[in-house]
Write a structure and sequence with these properties.
This protein is of the alpha/beta class. It has one domain: Metallo-dependent phosphatases (Purple Acid Phosphatase, chain A, domain 2, 4-Layer Sandwich). The chain is about 30% helix and about 15% strand. It has helices at about 15-20, 45-55, 65-75, 85-90, 95-105, 130-145, 150-155, 170-180; strands at about 5, 30-35, 60, 110, 115-120, 185, 190-195, 210, 220-225, 240, 250-255, 260-265. Strand 2, helix 2 and strand 3 form a beta-alpha-beta unit. Helix 3 (about 65-75) crosses helix 7 and helix 6 crosses helix 8 (about 170-180). The longest helix has 16 residues, at about 130-145. The protein starts with a strand and ends with a strand.
């Protein structure tokens, strides 16, 4: 079995199939780690979502901000945005099945044998592996439970700016969500700056790209989300796989054991 990790697909189904064909991917023997943002902005969100769901245990999926946005529209009463390409999913006959499946996915996953963690936007330096997993599980339980509509109604926002163990309720859930699905720039004390979306060198004063801060462990982290850096972090242990497929860049996939990257131009 070969495990591959892939960056933000965002509904680019044809390019997904192209890059999988390059390695002769077969769900009967291989596994695909998907770094979030399966859907939205691209032309084939429904086909992409159906395909990843059909992989069953051969897919390891973390939720991205666009995936959570679909759930916020479906469950939290939010209206689609002008550039969204979610309408086909929302009116599909299997909408409820797909929404239910998406709610079961994680915010981060950890492979202890490889010492790899995957989260859509990354993992903040202020959390250990165990803390990151525990806080992800807190929010995952909410998304899967009876309070999901309340969570998705109130999910959006940039406050609180940083982590505090004394946070409770929606403030706690929102900041955990923002670390895993929206983070780019962070301060040493863990405060997030969520308005700047350009390249790594555009950090506002007092902030740096999250992967610039040292960790007390040797964890490798796979992430997507930040197309503007084109996968470049300058550090082998922090592996960016969003290379802007939906913006005309490339869709990037990586063999988890060899580190080989496979690209498909978009």
């Amino acid at each position: 079995m070969t495990d591959y990790a892939i960056g933000d697909i965002q509904g680019c189904y044809d390019r997904l199939k192209d890059v999988l064909a390059k390695v002769d991917f077969s769900p009967s023997r291989d596994r695909l780690w998907v770094a979030g943002d399966l859907i939205n902005r691209g032309p084939s969100s429904l086909k992409t979502l159906r395909y990843i769901e059909s992989l069953g245990d051969s897919a390891v999926v973390v939720l991205g901000n666009h995936d959570l946005h679909l759930l916020a529209v479906a469950l939290g009463g939010h209206a689609p945005k002008r550039k969204d390409t979610l309408a086909e999913i929302l009116r599909a006959p299997d909408r409820d099945k797909l929404v239910s499946w998406l709610r079961q996915q994680n915010l981060c996953v950890h492979d202890s044998e490889r010492n790899i963690m995957m989260a859509h936007a990354g993992v903040p330096h202020i959390w250990s592996i165990q803390q990151a997993l525990a806080r992800a599980r807190e929010v995952e339980d909410v998304i899967r439970g009876e309070h999901a509509p309340e969570y998705f109604t109130l999910m959006y926002g940039n406050k609180p700016e940083g982590w505090n163990e004394n946070l409770t309720g929606m403030d706690r859930w929102r900041v955990i969500t923002n670390y895993f699905t929206r983070m780019r720039f962070i301060a040493r004390d863990g405060r997030l700056e969520l308005t700047t979306k350009e390249h790594a060198g555009s950090a506002p004063k007092g902030f740096s790209p999250w992967f610039e801060f040292p960790r007390p462990d040797d964890l490798r982290i796979i992430f997507g989300h930040w197309a503007a850096i084109e996968g470049e972090t300058g550090k082998e242990r922090f592996i960016g796989l969003d290379t802007g497929c939906v913006w005309g860049g490339a869709l990037t996939m990586m063999n988890l054991d060899t580190g080989e990257k496979i690209h498909c131009d978009c």
